[in-house]
Amino acid sequence: MRKGTCELCGYEGETKIIKKYRVIPQEVREQAGIQQSKAIRLCSNCQQELHKWYSTKVANMTYDTRMKRFRVKTPLEMVKEYESAFTIFEKYKRQQ
Fold first, then answer.
1. pLDDT above 80 (res 2)
2. Domain locations in the chain?
3. Which of 15, 25, 58, 61 suits 82 as a labelling partner, its CA being 20 to 30 A distant?
């Protein structure tokens, strides 16, 4: 069996456990008109942890001070939001 390594925690396991994961979800990439995003090999534990991280750190709404109300972020703003959340998550995991 082929082995793979999680790029965040260093876990080594079968390639069916270590999978390529796109930092920006497909739906957001499609809305922003982006074909590809950064890909990283993650174990299932890091994937689950990253999904939980995204659910608490990524928001699709922002307060617009000019309009003085909340509005839905544009697809490109969402791409930046996911990239930023992933960068922070990556630093957090590497410090453990």
1. no
2. 3-95
3. 15
